[in-house]
Each structure stands twice: as C-alpha cells, then as structure tokens.
C-alpha cells in the first residue's frame, strides 16, 4: 500500500497540466461543490463538507483540512463528456451555391478529471454504453471520452442521500480509473492512499514519489474501506427492476405526481440521463447553419411529441417513464441499471421525492 501527502495533489495537477491535460476537479462556488478548471492545490475545497437530505444541500466547514471531505455536488462529469449544449455539425453555404460541413468541435481538449467518485465512474461507464456501445457510435462523445485521465477518490463519508452500496457501484472504486485515492484522516495523520489502475496511472504515481504506508496508515485505510459502506444514507430495494415491471398501473404513480413539479431537476443532475433535443440554428444571412444538441428531459411535455401529438400528457406518466426506464427497462436496453445510487435526484428535487422510497412504496403496496 503506497501513500502520498495531500500536498502532492499540487504536483499531480501540475504534472497533468504539463502533460497537456486540461485539469478539472472539485471547487467551491456559490455555496456548492462544482467541477471546474483547477490549477493547483489551492483550488480544491479543503476543509469543506456537504450535508445531503431530500430537497436539501448545505456546505459546512469541517474541523480538518480534508481535500475530498464532501460527497458530490449538483454537477457531474457528464457536463464535460456530454455537454448541456453542443454544436454537432456546422454547414456553410458557398458562393457557388454548394455546401461544406465541418464538425462542431473538431479537436476537443484532453481532460483529466480529479476527484471522480466510484458511483461517478459507474455513471461514466453507463454513458459509454449509451453513446459508444450501440450500433451507431456518438462521434462527439467518443472524441471527448478517448483522452480522459481519471483520478478517482473513494468515499470515506457517504452522504445522507447516497445508496451506491446497494447498487454495487461504490463506495470504493474497483475499476475504470487511472489512479484511485483514499483520503485517510485520523488523529494527526493525513495521507492519501494511492492505487494505480492503468500503466498511465502507475507512471504518474511514480512521478509523485509515493512511499510505503506504515502500519497505522494501513489500518486506518482499511477501516475507511470497511466502514464507509455502513454509512450509506439509504438503500435501493434489490428487486427494484421486477417491482417496477409489475407495478405499471400502481396508484402510487398518481400519488407521487401530486407532489412532483415536473421541473426536470432530477434528470439534469443525474449523471446517466442522456435525453437530448436537436435544433437547427441558422445565422441571419443564411450562410451558416448549426445543428445544436441540448439536454432535454422526459419530464418535459414536448419530449414525447410524435406524429399526432404528445403521448405522455400527465405528470404521472412522465414520472413513471423516468423511474421505470432508470431502474427497469434500462437493463433491457443497455444491460445495466440506469441508476448508480449517487443520490443527486433526491438532494436536488425541490420537493424531496426519493427514488428509493418510491420503489419501496411500489413494492410494499402490491400491484393494483
Ligand atoms: S437516478 Fe438519481 S440516484 Fe440514480 S444515478 Fe440518477 S441522480 Fe443518481
Ligand atoms: S421528481 Fe422532483 S426533481 Fe424530478 S421532476 Fe419531479 S419535482 Fe422535479
């Protein structure tokens, strides 16, 4: 087991920048932990924790200098791999009346993500299946995803709305990272246990000059890994997929719809949701037109518009669509759950609707 000092994060960020990466990590802004460019240790949210409850999120000041002492904020890495708004294709009209096309983002930056939680690694894997694992690959997503360097950070203190343990996606990363860190703070000890997941991760770790952990550090790290799963705020019923499949006419959908604002927050904060819409945006002279993709949501009425009109006209129908896709039909479509248990949809739902409670309610009430 190898450790580095917390201050080595400064070197890590600098080395990745020198290697040509645009380095992105957690920062504190407007009362939240958000992902943004980081240039050194000082940009990380040292000493900040976050409280999560249904419809509630607050930062608080810790009594230590933990660099990764928060859980997750409203952002996910999705905003870099599948941006909220992107130009896919630009079409130019030539003077002779013909057309030329160019890619919207010909060469995206190579990015390094710092502080990726295990559930977020799982979410990236889910979106890889969606965008790259189908008959038609999403070229724009593929170009951004290809060069990404992933520095994961295992969760030591899961939040009140977390349930990754019951989704088998955390709180310790098993794969999908270049380097994984575990922050260990106990008594006067403060170290980062480092593991390499790829050759590139090992090469970077060597440049940080790690040392072997002593016995106390080893025992403390093992305690973090053992105890974190027991600190989950919630759990998803293990039979969620079957419960939903047999509850499509359950009265609970209508009950939940009376609370749901159909605001789409849950889908926008979700690291796996991928609904999008396309629009053509011409310039005023009619010489250039852009095909722009923006995030959409199954909670928007127009999202289900087809020939003949919108077919999910009620909030109950939209909520059922979201939940049943996430936890049931996503398995049929992509071979995995569409939920990784990050808890964002619970924290950021303005009325505190809780996906785990909804499934438990459907399971407990039986079919109607
Ligand atoms: S459905 Fe909710 S808990 Fe599951 S991945 Fe999306 S935001 Fe996270
Ligand atoms: S479940 Fe909550 S976040 Fe999602 S659309 Fe309804 S009110 Fe908005």
UniProtKB/TrEMBL annotation:
It comes from Thioalkalivibrio denitrificans. Gene3D superfamilies: Alpha-helical ferredoxin (1.10.1060.10). PROSITE patterns: 4FE4S_FER_1 (PS00198), 4FE4S_FER_2 (PS51379). Keywords: Iron, Iron-sulfur, Metal-binding. Residues 249-281, 330-358 form the 4Fe-4S ferredoxin-type domain. This is Sulfite reductase subunit A. One of its GO terms (molecular function) is iron-sulfur cluster binding. It comes from the Bacteria.
């Amino acid at each position: 087991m190898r450790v580095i000092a917390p201050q080595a994060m400064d070197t890590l960020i600098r080395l990745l920048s020198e290697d040509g990466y645009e380095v992105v990590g957690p920062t504190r802004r407007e009362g939240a932990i958000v992902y943004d460019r980081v240039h050194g240790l000082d940009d990380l949210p040292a000493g900040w924790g976050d409280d999560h409850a249904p419809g509630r999120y607050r930062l608080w000041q810790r009594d230590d200098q933990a660099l990764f002492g928060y859980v997750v904020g409203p952002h996910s890495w999705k905003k870099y791999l599948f941006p909220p708004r992107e130009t896919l294709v630009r079409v130019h009209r030539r003077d002779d009346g013909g057309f030329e096309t160019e890619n919207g983002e010909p060469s995206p930056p190579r990015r390094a993500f710092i502080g990726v939680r295990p559930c977020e690694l799982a979410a990236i894997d889910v979106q890889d299946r969606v965008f790259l694992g189908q008959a038609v690959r999403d070229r724009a997503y593929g170009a951004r995803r290809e060069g990404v360097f992933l520095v994961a950070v295992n969760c030591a203190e899961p939040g009140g709305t977390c349930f990754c343990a019951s989704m088998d996606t955390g709180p310790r990363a098993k794969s999908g990272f270049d380097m994984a860190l575990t922050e260990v703070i106990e008594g006067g000890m403060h170290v980062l246990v480092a593991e390499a997941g790829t050759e590139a991760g090992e090469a970077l770790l060597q440049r940080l000059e790690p040392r072997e952990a002593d016995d106390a550090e080893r025992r403390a790290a093992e305690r973090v890994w053992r105890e974190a799963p027991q600190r989950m705020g919630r759990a998803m019923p293990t039979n969620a997929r079957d419960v939903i499949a047999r509850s499509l006419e359950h009265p609970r959908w209508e009950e939940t719809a009376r609370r749901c604002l159909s605001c789409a927050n849950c889908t926008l904060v979700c690291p796996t949701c991928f609904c999008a819409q396309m629009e053509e945006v011409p310039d005023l002279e009619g010489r250039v037109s852009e095909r722009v993709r923006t995030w959409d949501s199954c909670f928007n009425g127009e999202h289900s518009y087809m020939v003949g009109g919108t077919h999910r006209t009620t909030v109950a129908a939209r909520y059922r669509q979201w939940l049943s896709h996430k936890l049931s039909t996503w398995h049929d479509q992509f071979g995995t759950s569409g939920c990784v248990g990050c808890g964002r949809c619970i924290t950021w739902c303005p009325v505190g609707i809780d996906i785990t409670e909804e499934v438990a309610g459907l399971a407990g009430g039986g079919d109607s």
